[in-house]
Design goal:
This protein is about 45% helix and about 15% strand. By secondary structure, it is of the alpha+beta class.
Amino acid sequence: MTSGISRIALANGTRVVCEPMDHVRSVAVGCWVEAGGAFEEEHEQGLAHLLEHLVFKGTSRRTAREIARDIEGRGGSLGAFTEKEFCCYYAVVLDDHLGIAVDVLADLILHYVFDEDQLAKEKGVVLEEISDLEDTPEDLVHEIMARGLWPNHPIGTGLLGSRESVNGMTSEGVRAFWRRRYTPGTITVAAAGRVDPDELRGLLDRWLVFGENGGAQGIMPSLSAARERLVIEQRPLAQVHLLLGARTDGALAETRFPLLVYNAALGGGMGSRLFQTIRENHGLVYSVYSHVSQMRDTGMLGVYFATDPSRLTDASALLAHELDQVCADGITTDELAEAKEQIKGALVLSQESTSARMTRLATHEMYFGTHMGLDETLAAIDDVKLEQVTDIARSLFWEQDPTVAMVGPADSEPPALREGLIRSREGCRGV
């Protein structure tokens, strides 16, 4: 156990993790519910996200206005977000107002009122979100990438759902999902800031009292090796938006630190290979980057750029060259050192935020059931070796067939794109 972090198990089975920070006057507290899109049935697509919206529309104890005013009227902030594996409800307040923050958060997840009129209104809001996504090609290409990497699996389904699935949602369906997933065994409470663990336990014992919700039901379907090589959404745009994606191990894997270093060196900033080569040296794109997204048992490393259709072949060839070069020769010792410092610096700076610390506490508790201290994490990053980075690169782009997702005009040529992106593995053997 890391010094300063308290883990508490409530009598109802809810896990609680708390990190006091005596040098601040604020506290961030979040209720993390394992009720994301990955736990939806096929007919429920988008329901986890819709429920996250609905709980703010009123509870048996507060109106929508009172929910907002109880936190914002005290100078705090209140919010929520839905991911593939969880939904988080959080508040950041002055330490004097921790009690009201816990009260409001518990109210949201336990006492939502299933109102048909509010459901109808919020379905309209989500439909506008879907339209907004479809009008934002950089977001849309990430959406269709998930569909290609995890076809016919809820992880590959968009969190917003479809117009058809949203229009078909009923109060009965929302209630069924809430009862199935919003239970003591699926909830982790995390708090960081000026907070006393005993006080937090007392507040949760008072407010987080479950009624009709029983044990969690429904599990995520098993992942298969199936994936699509090419996913295209044709749009009359001035640019082609391209995302190359490869599956990674999940967050629990020992490869997570070499993967982060590889990502940073490849496309994690302005000093990365992709930015320097494709943008700075050749001027073919405005935006180019790589990123890592990991869940419990799977994940993705994605490489994104947007360019004029006439430059697609050249940009793709440069991307292929950089990927193959790292697979063949690895990154340099200077790149390794710079990538490590970039990751460590971002991590250390983020820990000055109570919200970031609260998020780190929750994700470590949900995924690992233990907590790696900051110094231990920094040491693990420093321990990454050059050969580990090369092994990661080869496992992603030589040992599997990555997926290409593209949003752009109909006259782009995806077959030529696919052939130009990745050199055949047979041609790389023995390098």
